[in-house]
Specification:
It comes from Candidimonas humi. With about 425 residues, the chain is mainly alpha-helical. Helices cover about 65% and strands about 5% of the residues. A two-stranded antiparallel ribbon has the order 1-2. Strands 3-4 form a two-stranded antiparallel ribbon. Helix 2 crosses helix 11 and helix 6 crosses helix 14.
Length: about 425
């Protein structure tokens, strides 16, 4: 199984192309590599790890390989079809008016809720904010996203510095004070993908600045683990324990292994369409069955949520048929998002890349219901701000044929 997993990784690397299929493949590798490299933990009934090296369930190994292979095959479907340049349409949004709406709202959210965390240590700051934490998550992420885009496209160093400072302040507060890396990490990665999307990656493209950027992202991920190891070396006395304290891959894979080994099955996927309707979870019309099932039948003494996992959910519902269904859905999402990203530009393009990262990469540590709720809320918020900016500035560019704009006009519009 290990050799097949490594072979699929090599095949994706040989593609050397950064697109939605590459993002989905990265998600599979990042979150499930412990299954094939002795990184699974023995868990007690409170979901606490006490040793590593647990043997993975054979059905789990096969399921990951099926999804990985199906994703690789899907990456070649429809790639030979091209659209004439004159027929392509650019869908974009005026970014300056977008910033005029988004930045003041984000500043207001920060002014209102940040003082409420005074005297609270660690990640408890974020949890103590309640609904304020939700607002910080969405507005901070979108502001870092748009600021990164403006910094990329700025023509002068002064403008670049202005947007970099905005992003840096929000990243500093999110990572070092709130202890939540996802708010900062995924928008920054989206900016990197925005620059290189659709291009064939090679050593000549990856210059020193890009390597430093990648090292910075890795430092964000491993920063918590290094701090734990330095300040509590008695608890984190091994490399595996240190890495597992920071990377969710180990906990996600270990819990998923127990889901497969439990042989518990229940069908509830028919409720997924209700997730598209705002407020359904608050009204009790849908339930995070995956979390409830895992806690009740596998980890009854866990006093915290077990998160979710789409592969585990589809396995609980339909076993191998569910795995195949999830593989088809994953491939379809890759093609749809790839089409949308290629036919957009500017703020709308980087927003779609951000959605692609959430629903193709980050989805591996969320329940299906949670993932759809994330996408729904981000879309409602983003397009609501876009509508407000359009009404304010009245220069909302949408559906303008590429051939109708000269090069200079297209640049100015973008």
């Amino acid at each position: 199984m290990l050799y097949l997993f490594i072979t699929l990784i090599i095949l994706f690397l040989l593609r050397r192309k950064l697109d939605t299929h590459a993002l989905a493949a990265a998600g599979l590798v990042i979150y499930y590599f412990p299954i094939y490299f002795d990184g699974l933990a023995y868990l007690d009934q409170s979901a606490s790890a006490y040793a590593y090296g647990k043997t993975p369930d054979p059905n789990l190994e096969i399921s990951i390989l099926i999804i990985f292979f199906a994703l690789y095959c899907s990456s070649f479907v429809g790639k030979k079809k091209t659209v004439p340049a004159t027929a392509k349409r650019i869908y974009s949004i005026d970014e300056r008016s977008l910033c005029m709406i988004l930045f003041p709202i984000t500043a207001l959210v920060a002014i209102i809720f940040i003082p409420q965390t005074a005297g609270i240590e660690g990640k408890a700051k974020y949890l103590a904010l309640g609904f304020g934490g939700v607002l910080i998550q969405y507005f901070f992420s979108l502001t870092i996203l748009i600021s990164s885009l403006r910094a990329i496209k700025a023509k002068t160093r002064a403008k670049k510095a202005k947007y970099i400072v905005v992003s840096a302040l929000l990243i500093f507060y999110s990572v070092l004070l709130l202890r939540t890396r996802s708010i900062a990490f995924f928008p920054v990665i989206s900016a990197f993908v925005y620059v290189y999307y659709g291009r064939r990656l090679s050593p000549t493209i990856m210059g020193p600045k890009k390597i430093i950027f990648i090292a910075f992202c890795i430092a964000i991920l491993l920063g918590k683990a290094i701090a734990n190891y330095l300040y509590d070396s008695t608890t984190y006395n091994s490399v595996m324990a240190m890495m597992s304290s920071s990377l969710e891959s180990f906990s996600v894979s270990s819990i998923l292994n127990y889901v497969y080994a439990s042989h518990f099955y229940k069908f509830y996927l028919y409720q997924i369409p209700l997730t598209l309707i705002p407020g359904t979870s608050e009204l009790g019309l849908i339930t995070n069955y995956h979390n409830d099932i895992i806690k009740a039948h596998i980890f009854p003494y866990a006093d915290y949520g077990m998160g979710g996992n789409p592969i585990g959910e589809f396995w609980i519902n339909l076993q191998y048929m569910g795995v195949l269904l999830y593989a088809l859905i994953l491939g379809a999402k890759c093609h749809l998002l790839d089409f949308l990203i290629k036919h957009t530009t500017g703020a709308l393009r980087i927003f779609l890349i951000y959605i692609a990262i959430l629903t193709l990469l980050y989805v591996n540590r969320n329940a299906t219901f949670t993932d759809i709720s994330f996408i729904r809320n981000y879309c409602v918020l983003f397009f609501g701000i876009c509508l407000a900016s359009a009404l304010m500035k009245r220069n909302f560019l949408i559906g303008v044929p590429r051939a109708s704009l000269s090069g200079k006009q297209a640049i100015n519009r973008e």
